[in-house]
Specification:
267 residues, two-stranded parallel sheet, disordered N terminus, proton motive force dependent protein transmembrane transporter activity, cell membrane
Length: 267
């Protein structure tokens, strides 16, 4: 009898792995297709998207100059490829990152399709629309990282000099990696309300706790802001800090909604 039970558990585990494999294959295929499309359109992606934050006519700089008198000139740096395969490798990497970002909603959907059957109907009801919410927040975060964090960081780092005799000449891989890190960092940061939602569902997080430690959170956000936007001017810091604080307040609201719902269910 125990052997039969053990065999069922083993088969159930193997079936579980097989289901995971199917969803992973679908997600990988989507990334591959979009990567190929990006590869053959890299001239547009590289010039109009990836290099745009390094130019003075970038929308962020235009708005800052017009309304806040924060104007910049040409950035004092050049990009170089220092290895024989450098540009081709960068072409492949940039295409892959582009494909993964565009495919994110489908990847999240496949992950949800794998997890959903294991949830009870009531649990599925509580987290319905999670794929849409995660995807929207991710893309808003990507745009925030691309339009706010990246140009300010690139402007500061490109014009920073220890001594006038030192010329800034960066490897193209370093530039693209920095840009992608900033943009993807924004996408991750904007998942805070989703993380708080699930932590609140599990009873780990409460709105009272978040309100109690609001000041501590502001200090942490200020540190993160200083790291992601190394420029010392106040405007750059505020452009990063204010949206993060708004995310924190939204997360408190989300936690409060979940907390009240759980109290009603407990009655």
């Amino acid at each position: 009898m125990s052997d039969t039970t053990e065999e069922k558990k083993e088969m159930s585990f193997l079936d579980h792995l097989e289901e995971l494999r199917k969803h992973l294959i679908k997600a990988i295929l989507a990334v591959m297709v979009l990567t190929i499309i990006a590869f053959f359109n890299m001239d547009i992606i590289f010039h109009d998207i990836l290099m745009a934050p390094s130019r003075p006519d970038f929308p962020t700089f235009t708005i800052l100059c017009k309304y806040f008198n924060y104007c910049i000139g040409e950035m004092n740096f050049t990009l170089m490829s220092r290895t024989m395969t450098g540009q081709f490798t960068m072409h492949l990497l940039a295409s892959l990152i582009t494909g993964a970002i565009v495919a994110f909603p489908y990847i999240a959907y496949q992950l949800w399709q794998f997890i959903a059957p294991a949830l009870h109907p009531n649990e599925r009801k509580n987290v319905r629309g999670v794929v849409l919410g995660v995807s929207i927040l991710f893309f808003i975060g990507i745009l925030f990282g691309y339009y706010i964090i990246s140009p300010l960081a690139i402007d500061f780092l490109a014009n920073y000099k220890l001594d006038p005799s030192i010329e800034n000449s960066f490897d193209v891989t370093s530039y693209i990696s920095t840009l992608c890190m900033m943009a993807l960092g924004g996408g991750v940061i904007f998942q805070l309300p989703v993380v708080v939602y699930f932590l609140s569902l599990m009873g780990i997080m409460t709105p009272m706790y978040m309100k109690q430690y609001r000041r501590h959170a502001i200090v942490v956000m200020a540190v993160i802001s200083a790291i992601l936007t190394p420029s010392p001017d106040v405007l750059s810091q505020l452009l990063m800090l204010v949206p993060m604080y708004m995310l924190y307040e939204i997360s408190i609201f989300v936690s409060a909604v979940v907390y009240k719902r759980k109290l009603k269910e407990a009655e």
